[in-house]
Every structure is written in C-alpha cells, then in structure tokens.
Prior knowledge:
six-stranded mixed beta sheet, alpha+beta, 53% helix
Amino acid sequence: MSVLRYKLWADLRLAKSRSLLAAVNMAIGIFSVGMLFGMVALMLSNMDAAHRASQPSHINLILRGAAPVKLLQEISAVPGVAGVDTINPLPVRYRKSGSDEWLDATLMLRDDYRAQRYDLTELQAGNWPAAGQLAVENLSLAQTGLALGDSVEFQSASGSQTFELSGVLRHPFVKPPKFGGQVHFFASREAAKTFGLPAGYFRQLLVQLRPPYSAEAAAELATRLRILLAAKQAPVAVTLQQDPDRHWGRRFVAGINAVLQVMALASLGLAGALIFNTVAAHLAQQTEQIGVMKALGGGSLRIAWLYLSEVTLLAVAALAMAVPPALYGADWAARRLLALFNVPGGAFQVSNEAIIWMVGGGLAVPLLAALPPVWRASGMTVREALAHYGLPADFGANRFDRMVEAVGARLLPTLYATALGNLFRRKTRLLLTQSVLIAAGVMLMVLCALIASLNLTLDNEAARTRYALKLSFSPDQAEDKVYAIAGSVPVVQGVSIWQRLPVEIGRQGQALTQSGSLGMQIMALPAASALYQPYIEAGRWLQADDAGEHRLVLNADTAAANRITTGDSVDVTIDGKVQRWQVIGLYRWLAGNNFMVEPVYAPLETIRKQQGGKRLASYALLAADAEDELQEQALLWVLKQRFEAAGVMLDSYGSEAKLAQRQFSRNQFESVLGTLWGLAAMVAAIGGIGLSGTLSIGVLQRVKEIGVLRAIGAPSPAVFRLFALEGLLHGILAWSLSVPLAYRAGHPLADLLGRTMMNVELDYCFDHAAAGYWLLIVLTLSLLAAYWPARQAERLTIRECLAH
Length: 804
C-alpha cells in the first residue's frame, strides 16, 4: 500500500464520527431522490401499462336513459368509428346478509364478460358472474367487508333478490372510495330483467376511433355521436375521452410528483452543501499535512486525488446505505398510491431510472461539492501551508464582527458572548449549516400553510354552499313531486330545484376545449337562488334580472384555454337548437379533478322557456340544520326512504352531503401530504446531522482554546455549556431567518401545490402556530445535535488539549 493510500484509510479510520455523519447526510439525500424518482417511474409506467392492457375506449358516453341496441349498427356506420361496446350501469341498493341497513351501490351489467371489447373488466378472484351470482369490484371489496360466498340482498323491480358473491373484478375506471367513489357490483345479462332493464337496450356506449388517434378527432367524433343520440331520443349525460396510451389519472399524479422530485433534488443539494462544509473543515485541519506532502514532492493533482478519493469512498458507502431501502421504498410507495387508482402493482419492481439518479447524483453531487475546497487546499504553496495555524485569528477585523462583539459584551454574560462570537467565527460554515436548517423550517411552515390554506378554501366553499344536501334524480322527476316529498321532512328549511342538460358549446365554429374530463353540462338553477354560489374569478354570478335571458357563467380554466372573457358570446347547442349566449362570469372550480362533469351555470327560467315550460327536477338542493356529518347522513337516509316510498330512486352518484364532500376533497391531499412531511423530516435530519458535524469540527479546531480555558479554571460544565449554547444559537438564528422566508414563500408555493394537486388557487392562510412548532423543533434538534460535541469538549483534559 502506498503512503497516500495509507493516509487515505488512516483519515477515514481516525475520524470515524465525521466520516459516518458525512456518509449518513449523503445517504439521506440519495434515499430521497431514489425513492421519489423510483416511485414516480413505477407509478406512471404501471398506470400506463394497466391502461393499455384494458383496451381503453377512446370515447365513453353515459346516456341519461336506455337506448335500443339496434342503434349500434347506425353508430358503427359513422365515419371514424372503429368499433363499439356497451355496458349497463344501474343505481341499486343492497344490504349484506344479516344487516338491516340498505346501502347505495352501482350495478354493472355486461352481456358476456368473456367477449368484452373495450374497458376490459379483469377477473382477480373467483368466477365471472352467472345467473344468481354477482361479483364485486376490487376497491369495493375492502370497503364493504364482503367475502367470496357471502349472500347480498338487492332491492329490485320485483322485490328483494339475493345473489351469491362469486368473484372479485377490477374495473379500469372506478372512482376511489377515499375520494367519494361508490361500491360497484357486476352481474350477468340474466339479471337485467330483475332490475327493470329490458332486453336489447344499453345505457353506456364505448367507442374506439379508427387510427391514428388524436384528441381533436376524438372530440369531433364525440360531438357527432352526441348529436346522433340526441336525435334518436337517447341524450348523453356524460362524455369521457381517453388517450389510449396514457392513464386517465396520469395528469394528477405527474403534477404532484414533479413537486416531490424537485424537493428530493433539493434535499440532495443540501446534503452536498454539508459535504462542502465537512471537507472544507477537514482540509483546514490538515493544512500543515498538505504542506509536508508538498515539501516531500507531492503534486497538487496527486493531493487533490487523495482527498477526492476520500469523498468518493464516503459516497460509495452512502450509496450502499441508501440504494436498497430506496428501491424497496419506491416499490412500496408506488403500490400504495397505485391502489388508489385501482392499478395492480404486481411483483417487486426495480426502477432503472431511480438507480441512474441515485448513482449519478450520489457520486456527482459530493464530488462537485468537495471540489472547490479540495482545489483551493491542494493549490497552496509549501510556505502558505506550513505557515497556517488552524483557525484564523482575524475575528473582529470587520465592522460586523465588532458589532457582534459589542452586543455580546454589553448584553450577555461572558460565556454567552463567547458562544455568540464562535457562531460567526467561520461564516461560510455558518451559512452552509444554516441553509439546511432554514430549508427544513421553510418546508415545515409552508406545509402547515398549505394545510391551513386548504382548510380555509374548503371552509370558504362551504360558506358559499348554503345547502346541507344535494339530491340527484335519474331520470328527471316532476318538480311538484320533489317539493312535496322534500318538504314533508320537518328539518328541511328550503328547497331549490336545478335541472341538468347535455350541452355543446362552441365558438367560431370550433368546439370549446374543456377543463373537465367528463364533458360539459348545463346546470340550470333559479337566477335568484341563494343556496349556492361558486367562487367568481371574473364578472359576476347570476342575478334575478338574468331570468329568461341567454346568459351563463363559465369555468375559468375553460375560458382561459379558449381565450374567452366576460362579455364574449358563445354558441350553445341544447336539444339540437343553436343559440348565442353571453358569458357574464367565470367561476373557479374547487372540485375540478378527473372524475367530474364540468358545469355551465345558466338561469333555470331561460331553460324552461326554451323547453316549453316543462317543470322537471334533476337536482334538489336542501337547506337544513345539520351540525355534523352524522346528522347530514341521517337526514339523507330519511329522505331516501321518503323518495323510495314514493317510487323515486335517488341517483347515488350525484346525491351528496356537503360535509362528506369536503372530506373527500381533503382526502385527495393526504397521501401527498404524508410524502411531503417525510421529506421535511429528512431535511430536518440532514440539518441536525450537519449541525452536529459543524460543532464536532469546531471542537477539533478549538482543542488548544479548550485547553487554555481549562488551564485558567473553566470547569467541565462551563465548557459543555459553551458548545451547547453555540448549537442553541444556531437553532435560534435558523428560526429567526426561516419564519420571514416561509411567510414570503408560503403564498406562491401553496398556490403552486394547490393548482398541481386540485387544479385550484387556494385561499392563502399562513399558520402562525407553525412558527411556534418550528421553534420548539429547531431548539430540540439543536440541543440534541450539540450534545455529543459538547460532551467531547467537556471530556478533554488540559494535557490532551495542550499536546494537540
């Protein structure tokens, strides 16, 4: 072994604590990058693969009623149609064997599960449903607590019917129960008659285009099909377009993961800053050794290679610590999030992209961070190196240093003043250590601001929503009947009737680009209604004098995508009639996600005038005193009983309680918030380890000073308090700087995360309590980080110090 290699191993062996801290810092950053980049890669690849395997329909049309199968021949003849398939979704009520409670669900009927063409339902356990049997959807299985072989009772047109649960299926497009999705069952065509669906009809149409696929061609064909079905008295309620190669949930996932990846790279960069700090201090301690090596003929490149080799070995050790848990963590996190979108994870998978990022970043970042101090130290002359005496004695040479000394001398006891001076003694090291602690504090407080802003936004939306329940009817019901039944419940204080209609909106001969993935529909409500008003971003909301006028309120994102402003006119097609309507307002869509039909608000009086005075109800909004979610659910149950007794089935998809919907909206954040909290904790850990390393380096570089202090009578507890106070001052300084930074950065970052995760601009609110939480955390972290270095200093004897 050469002398330089012996020195390399000796440096690592003699400074075990410092080497371990440096390797752990790098490992945390590498782990963050590997886990998050791996999670993203595995999620997106699995989602897209599962999507392609399901033979996705390009156009999915959900009808307002049932259409005869004979229409399929005419639909197949429309230019551009490559093939069609059908499904029959039905709202049903069920109860488990031995239970008295009836629950809402959706029953999916297919003619032949072995001859599916598009949106393939996959058998995961048991058997395909046959006569007298049914299957349950994978996500619904855990929610219901059912098991194969259980009996499930359904309400049907001919009375209660019991089916045996024979299989578990996976449907490629099911809203997660955590986000408000319903229980889904599957039955064979033999069950259609039982539930009142005559043979030879369908309620949902799946269409594929002739290649090549394009979103524009799909939108154009969807418009032609909607017009055709409306002409055949089979109007479309919901339109969904799907890219055949990209999963429908990809936009939501990709946007969130982009934020997480940036934060993971930032954590690796912060670890690199601490590597710079550690290497610079190590080289400052070995300056005389560098001078000796140069005097004995060591060249600058040779010496640089020596110290960069040390950093490389530490980086390799960090990779060894970080790569296995990062790969397992990426697979675990991807499976957990894929389950929300009903995508199977399969066998354990390793992300090659994660390995590339970890190896590339794990080697490049430490070497790049170490290069400046190594290059500077290896370039010193023999005279400069041998004339170096450790820590500089020039503190107090500038105005800032003198101000620090003056403040300490005037306001603080001697020990505190010394700790304050030591804090600012090495400003570069202070800056790098503080950068990590400040970053952790800013992340924590911005996350708290994000949660507070989310809650404020949902509270403000609830304040604009003055109804407790929204009841949905499919098909539409007579308005007088709805008023009579809803008014029979004493706690109901007011009822507002809304009507929905399929709509086509265009401008200058082109259909509008929509922000809602399930298409648009007119939501007609009384112009003077006060039970609901969305957040109006531009223009105004409907008023009493808009009754009978052709005026509408449009989604702000859709308006921006089509360069529409308030006052502009658009072409609105309702029931085959094209009319010019004026856009009077633009609303912000809080519930915008992949599972929503985009509403276009219009006066109910205008729609009824156009329809010849028909008084139908698609929705009933009920004002009632309901203080919590349990009271809302109890009221909803009572109303369902009243309506069903009158022969009216509520549409379980559209019927909702206000507080429950608030929780479903918040649930969309939970998995992401957990990851963000984990990242903030890892950055805080990097900061704590870095602070401990900084103080340990300070102990090593001030050994002779400690000896002088002990020689003039300083007791061990005083030495301990000196370094503990320095760590505490680090924490106080980091807190005082991170609070204003978080206050300034919180608004734009919360806005960015809100738009990424929910496609809305959150109502911003800074959580002032978070500043108090961070103060407690950073002080605790600082004291824990300072404990071991302070103990090291306390244990040094006078002989050890003066012999250093």
